[in-house]
Write a structure and sequence with these properties.
This protein has 449 residues and is α/β, with parallel strands linked by helices. The protein is built from 13 helices and 17 strands. Strands 3-4-2-5-6-7 form a six-stranded mixed beta sheet, sandwiched between helices. Strand 10 and strand 11 form a beta hairpin.
């Protein structure tokens, strides 16, 4: 077997509700995919890297393959699973040992034979050794010995990983790559997040449908542009918490919030054809509070030109509604037409660089000193005045500045905002929340610092 570059790809496939996502989570060692008894929860391809016995590979969870459904969404799910099979070096066909062989299992087995790639047959839901005989029925699929496992309980998954590693192709060891910029694409349902991710990738990587709630998981996809690597995270639409009812929807919302927390930059997608909604504001606030960089993407801008309201007024209204993140740049775009995507990448690059930037201590103290000289802190009711001794930036991502003062409680919020504006006026912090932390220091300590 000749060596090739890149990680081997292992695709987990099968009909709905046989436990593919539970097995995926078990093999990667964390709960990345949503697991529910409801068929059809997984729709997009979900990738994760994992390793076993020193061999690293990419594992792909796919939606359930249905052969009899006429629903358009099922056709798109099938297309995503087919794409995973085409890219895979090895397929893991998961079947339900409790239900036995069904016609869809035979159809999928035939499809995998036609793909001419190695296949491991996994009989899931074998929770006890006494149930192993149920797996024997699957010899009739003609894919070799079934491996009896329980994804829920972890039974025999080590044996499965041994079998996977034994069939992986040889790969060339690539030098360590620079960590990609993590970009979470967030917004309320149906604003065009998945369409935007597909346009940024240049392929239909995630399913797009007019029905809100099509995306349920946070789907990570690596891409490269101009020599830079990005981890694009398509997320489920965030609705108001009071309207989140079904467990799948609640878990989707939790995954979206986790995606925001691990992102370098959050692209908050708005529907430019309608006014900014309260939920748009809440999502933008969540991104800012998480400490990631923020870019506002006004999608569907092609529809704005067809409306009577002028473009400038629409943009000004959006900026006014999001004035609490006035540092965030705004990009006009149309995912459907491909407008503005290059500008979006350029803006993400700038914000990502600012997110990890550091301000030299000398420069920072000069800026703060000049701001204090121009406008000293106000005195409190007793005539006591706040004294600022020293400033330093101990952390980046986001930039965090510590101000050593005589009495932190004497600094009003208005003066804190004044200092932030002074710093931003001389340092490019576009798209980045700036955290100011006050530390108490006595005057005698400050003189000897």
């Amino acid at each position: 077997m000749s060596a090739r570059a890149g990680l081997p790809v292992v695709a987990i496939v099968g009909r709905p509700n046989v436990g593919k996502s539970a097995l995926f989570n078990r093999l990667v060692g964390q709960r990345l995919a949503i697991v529910e008894d409801t068929p059809g929860v997984t729709r997009d391809r979900l990738y994760a890297e994992t390793d076993w016995q020193g061999r690293r590979f990419a594992l792909v969870d796919t939606g359930g393959l249905r052969s009899t459904s006429d629903e358009p969404i099922d056709a798109r799910v099938r297309a995503q699973a087919e794409a995973a099979i085409e890219q895979a070096d090895l397929a893991v066909l998961v079947v339900d040992a409790r239900q036995g062989v069904v016609p869809e299992d035979r159809e999928i087995a035939q499809r995998l034979r036609e793909a001419r790639l190695p296949v491991l047959l996994v009989a899931n839901k074998v929770d006890h050794p006494s149930q192993e005989s149920a797996a024997h029925e699957f010899y009739s699929l003609g894919l070799g010995d079934p491996i009896a496992v329980s994804a829920t309980h972890g039974r025999a998954t080590g044996d499965l990983l041994d079998a996977i590693v034994a069939l992986l192709p040889d790969v060339e060891t690539a030098p360590p790559a620079e960590r990609p910029v993590a970009v979470a694409v967030v917004g309320r349902p149906n604003v065009g997040k998945s369409s935007l991710v597909n346009t940024m990738l240049g392929e239909e990587r995630v399913i797009v449908d007019a029905a809100p709630g099509t995306t349920r998981d946070a789907v990570d996809t690596l891409c490269e542009r101009g020599g830079r690597r990005y981890l694009l995270i398509d997320t489920a639409g965030l609705r108001r918490r009071a309207r989140v009812g079904h467990p799948v929807e609640a878990y989707s919302a939790a995954r979206t919030r986790r995606a925001i927390e691990r992102a370098d930059v959050a692209v908050v997608v708005l529907d430019a054809s309608v006014p900014v909604a309260d939920q748009d504001q809440r999502i933008a606030a969540e991104a800012a509070e998480a400490g990631c960089g923020v870019v506002v993407a006004m999608n569907k801008w092609d529809l704005v030109a067809a409306q009577p309201r002028p473009d400038r007024q629409r943009e000004q209204a959006a900026r006014a509604a999001l004035r609490f993140i006035d540092y965030a740049p705004l990009v006009r775009l149309s995912a459907a037409r491909g407008w503005g995507v290059e500008a979006l990448f350029d803006t993400v690059d700038r914000v990502a660089a600012n997110h990890r930037s550091r301000i030299g201590t000398g420069v920072l103290n000069r800026i703060v000193g000049e701001a204090v000289a121009a406008q000293p802190p106000p005195a409190d009711a007793a005539g006591r005045r706040l004294r600022l001794y020293y400033a330093t930036q101990p952390e980046a991502a986001p930039p965090t500045i510590v101000l050593f003062v005589n009495e932190p409680s004497r600094m009003p919020d208005t003066y804190r905002r004044y200092l932030e504006r002074a710093i931003r006026s001389q340092v490019d912090l576009t798209g980045v929340p700036l955290r100011l932390v006050l530390r108490r220091r006595r005057e005698s300590e400050a003189q000897h610092a």
